[in-house]
Amino acid sequence: MLQSKLYLLLHCLFIMISSLSAQLKCDYCNLEISGKYLTTAGKSYHDNCYTDHIQARCQYCKKPIDGPYNVHEDKSYHEDCYIDHIVPKCDICRLPLKGSYITDFWGTAFHEHHSEEFPECSSCGRLISDELTGGGYDLGDGRNLCGICNETSVSDDYLIESALNQVKRLLASNGINDFPKHIPISIVDKTELKQKSTSYSDAMQGFTDHNTQTRNGEVILKESHIYILSHLPMLMFKAVLAHELLHIYLFEQDLNLRPDIREGFCNLGSELVYESDNSQYSKFRLQSMLESLDPDYGIGYRKMSKLLYQKGWMYILEELDNIR
Ligand SMILES: [Zn+2]
Ligand SMILES: [Zn+2]
Ligand SMILES: [Zn+2]
Ligand SMILES: [Zn+2]
Ligand SMILES: [Zn+2]
User: Fold this and answer.
1) Full residue range of the structural domain in which residue 111 is found
2) Same domain for 301 and 241?
3) Are residues 183 and 134 in the same domain?
4) Does the residue 167 lie in any domain?
5) Of 33, 29, 9, which Cα lies nearest the Cα of 21?
6) Which ligand is nearest to the CA of 118?
7) How many separate domains does the chain show?
């Protein structure tokens, strides 16, 4: 008896609220609310109006969100939808990239720990892995070459000859010619390069040996021999070749320049090769040259490159001896 009374009382109370809220309108559809409704942020909604139109929805699966969720670029996602479909994935292990990660020059993103697991390609800087480069090679002399760079790696005489002709044409189009008719080019490994060169540095990719023969104090023969490191991809090979050809140019003109002016000038040849090519690889190589801290190959190069940009090739060639 007591229980049924209580029930009745509650019932009366409910009706009262219901009649009191007769003017209550849904903030979504603007129609009157009767029965069950929801209130949030000071606004009231029909149950259906709320779930169908107001409740936050996952921007991936479009279903309403209850419980924890992630916000990314002002959009909300279920936790699972976010991790499975929105978070970028590592290009090496395919797992989500949460927290800080590395994006390399090539736009590849990967977990930081992979840079300790895989060697860097000495030519393009990519991490040598099956996923990114289709594997690669340890050249056994401190260098590693990725599968991509290896595809154009220069070794046979035919390629050397055609590279030489192309680079000579490129230099000639900027007023640099009069090279000896025959220029021997040998491909060597790092140990041989070290033996040939007089001032070896680890960044060295090539070396030119000059030889002058005199008789009674008079020059009767001048010859140069270019040595280039093995396993260089074609573009880098041409860039090194252009650098070495400019050494020959200086030798033929009897120009003895200060090391930073000399190497900076010769690097303009490499710059020319890379700038005549529109690939990402060339951009990567140019960037490495711009970032080099070497006093001659880096600082000297930037000095000469600036001068070239301001005054042009003709000025550089005429004034080489006077540049300080
Ligand atoms: Zn409504
Ligand atoms: Zn979702
Ligand atoms: Zn990873
Ligand atoms: Zn590479
Ligand atoms: Zn040099």
Assistant:
1) 102-150
2) yes
3) no
4) yes
5) 33
6) 3
7) 2
Both tokens assigned to 273: 């090769």
Does 144 lie in the same domain as 244? no
Q: Which amino acid is at 119?
A: P
Query: Which ligand sits nearest to residue 259's alpha carbon?
Result: 5
144 contacts: CB under 8 Å, gap ≥ 6: 119, 120, 121, 122, 128, 136, 137, 138
284 lies in some domain:
yes
Residues 203 and 303 in one domain: yes
Total-model pTM:
0.79
Give the total residue count for the chain. 324
Which residues sit with Cβ closer than 5 angstroms to ligand 4, an ion?
Answer: 121, 123-124, 146, 149
Per-residue pLDDT of the chain (324 residues), as tens digits, is 223 222 222 322 232 344 444 578 899 999 988 877 888 888 888 888 888 888 888 999 999 888 888 888 888 899 889 888 988 899 999 999 988 899 999 999 999 999 999 999 999 999 999 999 999 999 998 899 999 999 999 988 889 999 999 999 999 999 998 899 999 999 998 889 998 887 777 778 999 999 999 999 898 999 999 999 999 999 999 999 999 999 999 999 999 999 999 999 999 999 999 999 989 999 999 999 999 999 999 999 999 999 999 999 999 999 999 988
